[in-house]
Amino acid sequence: MFDTIQNTWLFAAGSAAALTALIHTFVGGPEVAGPLLRAKDIPNTPKYVNYYCWHLVTITLFAMAIGLIWASVDQTQTGLAWMWTIIAVLFMAWSIALVVWKRQNPFFMPQWAFFAVVSGLAVAGLLG
After folding, report:
1. Measured between alpha carbons, how far is 56 from 74 in angstroms, rounded to an integer?
2. pTM of the full predicted structure?
3. pLDDT-derived band of residue 86, with 50, 70 and 90 as boundaries?
4. Taking CA 12 as the corner, what is the angle to CA 8 and CA 17, rounded to the nearest 5 degrees?
5. Helices 44-73, 8-23: inter-axial angle, 10-degree rounding
6. Quick check: 2 pLDDT over 70?
7. Taking burial as the number of CB atoms within 10 A of a residue's CB, which of 36, 43, 66, 125 is the most buried?
């Protein structure tokens, strides 16, 4: 597969997205989703809607990784690369906005940094 990579920047962006997905799943899951499910002071409906959204993010992150890696080996998939790049940029922007708006410590909500890496690599792959 490595000899078929046409765009190393997009491959790096897809790899960064895959690493983000793994960190989200195996580090964030126990740190965020676990306590959410154990919380006794949150009614079931908002608790399980948030848990559902957690899994939607997981699926999205793995799809982003697959889409960017696919675009790195198939030059006809530029539209796919643009779609995932725009989504990564929007996720980064929303994360930064949320940190600022809610006055959170940016190191306790590091999503912006993960999406900044994916965004930067993907933009380099698309514009470079």
Report:
1. 26
2. 0.94
3. very high
4. 150
5. 160
6. no
7. 125
